[in-house]
Known about the structure:
The protein has a 5-stranded antiparallel sheet. A 3-stranded mixed sheet has the order 1-2-4, with no helix packed on it. By secondary structure, it is an alpha+beta fold. It is built from 11 helices and 11 strands. It folds into 2 domains: 2-188, Jelly Rolls; 194-298, Arc Repressor Mutant, subunit A (Orthogonal Bundle). The protein is globular, with a radius of gyration of 20 Å. The longest helix has 31 residues, at 158-188.
Amino acid sequence: MIFKEYTVKDQKIKYFVSTEIGKRLPFAITPYEKLIGSDDIFTPSLRDFHVIFWVKKGSGSFYVDFVKHTFSEGTLILLSKDQLHYFLPFEKEQTAIISIGFKPEFIYKNDNDLEHLFKFNASAHQKETQTIEIPLQSTEKLQGLCDEMEAISSKWEKKYVSKGFYHCLCLFLMNCEMIQEEIQNKKSDRAIDKNISDFLAFNELLETFYKTEYKVEFYANRMNMTLKTLAKLTRTHYKTAPKAVIDQRRILEIKRQLQGTSKPSKTIAYELNFGEPTNMFKFFKKHVGLTPKEFRTKT
């Protein structure tokens, strides 16, 4: 694994690049001993690949996109690429965590039904969709898949490694999906219906177009919905209006770029289609209460 470092007000932000994870492969499973061999997991970082952290023992806290969360034994933390993340220091002897990292294009070839596991937005953690508490009855199955991925990575012939890891990772993700559905069904006492499908479709659209499209009409038209129907959908799942959800996602991206990179604010403004940097400055000040410069300095 390699990374670049940015400095924001004496704080190093690491950017991990997948070109050398897993012996130059687009995937890797990392045991706890290697994870704590450096302070990387305690340092705010971005990455160009997805990562799953499985807490096997212990408890503590971690940050994702500036929001603090807790973990305990049995927690799976699903982190999408480009999310700012780090763990707060914990007792290393009392904790055990493994990680599985992979490039999106490695796993998402024809498995579109799995993509929603890693298509998160500004409200993912608040909606408890980015962590999974593993039931005891599922632990043995998931551990078996992890053991197999470790064996494939270290013992198999090179020409078979990619295919073997791919199939085990698919099974691991599908088990995660089934656990999520079971938890959701218990909470709602019903199977995932069209309302949930529409919600996932809106999330996918937002993740695809938030940098260039910020009008509610665009998303309603793409989903063949009336503005009233889309408003009902977001109020059901986010407790707020569609425009607020879109704005939250754009604010989150500005924060990530300000803290996680050394890009000038005006470059960020142009990349997010604000037209003029002053438009982004006013937008950010209105929602955050700070100018981009003040936020970058404060964080």
